[in-house]
Amino acid sequence: MVKLANRAIDGFLDAPGDGIVAVLLYGEDNGLVRERAARLAAAVVDDVNDPFRVFEVNAAMLKEEPTRLFDEMAALSLTGGRRLVRLGRAGNGNSATIEAILDASAISAEDSLLLVEAGTLAPRDSLRKLFETNDRAAAIPCYLDDGRSLEMLVAESLGKYGLQVEPSAMAYLCDNLGTDRQITRSELEKLALYKGRNGGAVSLDDAEANVGDGAPMARDDVALATASGDQTGLDRALMKCRIAGESPIAVLRAVIRHLQRLHLLSLKAANGTDIGHLIKSHRPPIFFKHQPQVQRQLQNWRPQRLAQALNILTEAELDCKTTGLPADAICGRALIRIANAARPHTGRSA
After folding, report:
1. Alpha-helical runs (H) found in 138-247
2. Which of 39, 94, 97, 205 lies in the 20 to 30 Å Cα band around 196?
3. Which residues pair with 112 in a beta bridge?
4. CA 314 to chain centre
5. End-to-end CA distance of the chain
6. Is 335 within 8 Å of 234 (Cβ atoms)?
């Protein structure tokens, strides 16, 4: 089994494939990791609180008893049925133990399933490589919702309550949600309950009154200030993000998404399409209060320079994950570099 494609994930969560002994859920969206873990657990056992069929292993247990994970996977359920063994906050240090489980012929997929939850893993991380290359394992990435996927999530979640979303409200929601699947769903449920009392389509006023209380808006401010070359605004927005507890990687991802949007729009504008029309018709919609600023940015940035800036951000994200250097400093240097390149007097290279 290899890393599951997006189109195959839903079916797998409801019915894990035959012969699969272990499943890895990893990625920067912790809420989506938890949501998918709960869904997979429910597909394996009738009652996730059954102590005879569900066992949780943590790092402290493995430190005291290194073989505990293997022993739990090899044990048989006292009441019959498949056992579920859960390992949270896993990392590369667990790779050897899990590989031994996958290689053990005595451990049957019919008897036990190991559910492993992890954070962000690079392609070369041993834990991720193990699950992506072993025939008895499956790896499921849990990436942040953005772009079209986030718009679809908003429409689907509110549609269950019979609610439609006005374009300006959709743009606002897409700008202020998406960093954690469970938080996104919770915010949308809160909005749906509010509209249940007031009726009608979800308007911008409804969205602003119920969703967005600091961190997402601060990330937007970082992205807009960076692309505008506004050093003062960037410093202020970064400080807000730190106060809100935002991770440097989440901040970098917000700027990456914004520059990707600018890059797409700039390529279309290079073909002669009117910039104003492009901005107004873009999907997912651009929040109307940001549209004038986005238009000014498109007049200053060209596709090649945006591609260079995106490379800088991608390298910064990788450095945050792999070098061991302070992530805040790596993030700050990359954003300052791009903000300087955005200022008209700095020449034409990022």
Report:
1. 147-159, 167-176, 181-198, 204-210, 215-228, 231-243
2. 39
3. 83
4. 15
5. 41
6. yes
Output Rg (C-alpha) for the chain, integer angstroms: 23
pLDDT band at 50 (very low <50, low <70, confident <90, very high): very high
Residue 244 is which amino acid? A
Angle ∠(70,134,6) on CA atoms, nearest 5:
115
Report the alpha-carbon distance of residue 36 to residue 223 in Å, rounded: 29
Residue range 72-90: average pLDDT?
Answer: 90
For the stretch 119-170, pLDDT in tens is: 888 888 999 999 999 999 999 999 888 778 889 999 999 999 999 999 889 9
Domains, in order of start, for the chain: 6-141 (3.40.50.300), 147-210 (1.10.8), 215-346 (1.20.272.10)
Decide if 30 contacts 119 (C-beta within 8 A).
Answer: yes
- pLDDT tens digits, residue range 6-43? 889 999 999 997 899 999 999 988 899 999 999 999 99
Is the distance from CB of 208 to CB of 175 less than 8 angstroms? no
